[in-house]
Every structure is written in C-alpha cells, then in structure tokens.
Design goal:
- This protein is of the alpha/beta class.
- The chain has two domains: about 35-170, NAD(P)-binding Rossmann-like Domain (Rossmann fold), CATH 3.40.50.720; about 175-325 and about 340-355, Dihydrodipicolinate Reductase, domain 2 (2-Layer Sandwich), CATH 3.30.360.10.
- It is built from eleven helices and 15 strands.
- The strands form two sheets. An eight-stranded mixed sheet has the order 9-10-11-8-12-13-14-15, covered by helices on one side. Strands 1-4-3-2-5-6-7 form a seven-stranded mixed sheet, sandwiched between helices.
- Helix 6 (about 125-135) runs parallel beside helix 7 and helix 8 (about 180-185) packs across helix 9 (about 215-235).
- It starts with a helix and ends with a helix.
- Mean pLDDT is about 90; it is low at about 20-30.
Length: about 350
C-alpha cells in the first residue's frame, strides 16, 4: 500500500487498509464497553475502603483521585471504570488500581468494592447511583443527585421502609470546608436568626455548552450553596423565591443569572446571587453572615474575618472548598459507623429546591 503511494506514476486516489476481523472485533468490544484489564494483582486491602471510580473526567482526575491518593490510610483506589477503555487503563496505571474496565457490571458485581464514586455527566448521575445502590454498594455521587423529579423519586423510593441500606453521599463539599466548619462553631451558638448573603460569580459559559442541559447551572452548581445555607442554619427550608434577569441579547441567559431567596423555619433568610455576567477580575464566591450583632465574611474560601465575633481568622493562597474534608467525613461513616455526613432528607431538599429555582 505504501509503495503504491510512493510511485511516480499512476498514483491511486486512496488506499484502503484492512487489519483483519480479529482487530475489528477487539475495537468493537471497546466501543461496546465490555473490556476489563488487570493492572495490579496485589491482594485486596480490607483495612481500607476500596473505591471504584465510575467516570474519570476532569473533576475526578483533577480533584477526587489526587485527594484520595493523599488518604492512603483510609482509601484504596481499587478499580477505574470509564466509557473510554484506554483512559480507564491510563488512570488505573497512574494510581495503581487493581483493574480498569469499560463495563459497569464489573464494578457492581465485584464484592471487593466498598464505595462507588460517580463523576460522570450530570444526566447519568441518578441512573448510575440507583444501579450501584441496588447492587449493595455505598455511593458517593457528584452533584447533582438527579436532574429531574422522576429520577429523584426513584432514589427516595429505594430508601423507603428503612432497613440496612447502603450509604448515599452527594458531593456538596462547601459545608465540609475548614472555613465553613469554623463559621458553624459560631452560628450554632446564636440566639437569633441569621441574614446570609452569598455571591456566586459563576462566570460566562456559552449557551451551547452541556452544563446548560438537564436542569442547567442551578441544578448543577447552585445546589452547593443551597446545601451550605442549610448546613449553617441547621434548619429546613420553608419557602423559596427567585427572579432572573431579562436578557437584552442572546449572549446571556436568564437561567444562570438569578437572585434567590430562601426562608428557613428557624426564621433565617439566605440570599443567593448567582450570575454569569460578572467580571472575571472579581472573586468567584463571597459570603456575608449577620446575627446577634455579629458579622462574618468569607471570601472565596481563601480568607475568613469576623466582626464582633472571635472567629479563627485564616487565609490561604488557594480556595479550600472541602473536597478533601468530605472524603474524611465519609470515611468516619463507612468505617466507624458514624451518621451519614449529610442526611438523606437534606440532600433531597437541596435537590428539590434546585429544581424550583
């Protein structure tokens, strides 16, 4: 074939290469997600929580995998599953996992898997979560838990009737941040309700991007802040109100430029300003909390300052949003039998409110 291309006369217009049926079958098996490759045959460590990753996109490889690799006394990266088999293999090799696969059943049928971490596209979260729970696996699913009410109802139904059911954890990480934990120490001792104002300078993302699908950025990101507000108040949400901008052109959307008001049963009020039309020069997240003649300011999970209250003031060069701490909290549940890091009603409430706004 290559010789015919190099000839000076009568060059063919194209060359068709045939690699044989065996190679095509192997490729087809990859595309149909039924490939498993053993990477490491080391014995299973029963002292650690053996983790199987489902989906190894940017967030998993940039946040969760590096964080779990820091907690080797608690977790073992045991298996990697991804629709792209070659990526699953590469990540498994990098982190010393026992195997890589592109078949979800390999994970669900493996009795050695203690925890499934789901970090896939938003529209697959609920279905994958339910499959893992029904297989008896504890689940850490990245937010959102679900993208519509029907999906959420199926998960709620799974837990009806009580009994010994697997642990479910949604990656609402902000409440686990050291900054949020310090704030909670002081808000827990308050006498009166709080006024909370939270700014999420989310940044512009073109409207044809996938984040705008399946509930959009309210369901996919604003849920973080709803959860944090509930964690700080320690109360259930009583009412929800939201207003969106009316765009004057097609660049900006009403769907990710909103002002949201949450009223809590304890009397507290939380105002969330979520917008995509702000400046990149402004920090992304900023929170003010006011109660009992005291005020606390959190700037982008990099600094904390109190006014009239003795908070442990701190500053860091990078945002510390609680991704490592949430894994430590989940370990306490799975290995030491402590209560769920976030109760089921709380995760459901956050998801339902995100649907409303």
């Amino acid at each position: 074939a290559f010789e015919s291309l190099q000839t000076s006369q009568n060059k063919p217009l194209m060359v068709l290469l045939d690699y044989g049926e065996a190679n095509l079958t192997e490729l087809d098996s990859y595309l149909n997600h039924d490939k498993k490759i053993i990477i490491n045959s080391a014995p299973v460590n029963r002292d650690a929580i053996n983790v199987a990753f489902v989906g190894v996109g940017g967030f998993a490889t940039g946040i969760h995998l590096p964080n779990i690799s820091k907690l080797t006394d608690k977790y073992k990266i045991y298996a990697i599953m991804n629709r792209s088999g070659h990526k699953a293999k590469a990540v498994a090799q990098q982190y010393g996992a026992n195997y890589a696969t592109s078949n979800l059943d390999d994970i669900l049928n493996d009795k050695n898997v203690d925890l499934v971490i789901i970090s896939t596209r938003h529209d697959s979260h609920a279905e994958l979560t339910l499959k893992a729970l029904e297989a008896g696996k504890n689940v850490f699913v990245e937010k959102p838990l679900a993208t519509n009410k029907d999906e959420l109802e199926k998960i709620k139904k799974f837990y009806e009737g009580g009994g010994d059911k697997p642990v479910l954890f949604v990656g609402f990480n902000r409440r686990f941040s050291a900054y949020a934990q310090e704030i909670k120490k002081h808000t827990s001792a308050r006498i009166n309700p709080m006024i909370i104002r939270y700014r999420m300078n989310a940044g512009y993302i073109p409207m044809d991007h996938w984040v705008h699908e399946n509930g959009g950025r309210m369901v996919g990101e604003a849920c973080h802040i709803i959860d944090l507000m509930t964690a700080l108040t320690g109360s259930e949400i009583e009412s929800v109100f939201s207003q969106a901008i009316t765009p004057s052109n097609e660049k900006y959307s009403a769907e990710d430029n909103k002002s949201i008001v949450l009223k809590y049963k304890d009397g507290s009020v939380a105002n969330i300003e979520y917008f995509a039309n702000g400046s990149k020069e402004l920090s992304k997240e900023f929170m003010e909390i006011h109660f009992d003649g005291k005020s606390i300011i959190l700037d982008d999970y990099k600094s904390l300052k109190g006014y009239g209250v003795g908070v442990k003031e701190n500053s860091t060069n990078v945002s510390q949003k609680g991704q490592l701490e949430e894994l430590e909290a989940l370990f306490e549940t799975l290995k030491k039998g402590k209560g769920w890091p976030i109760e089921l009603w709380d995760m459901v409430q956050t998801t339902e409110v995100a649907f409303c706004i």
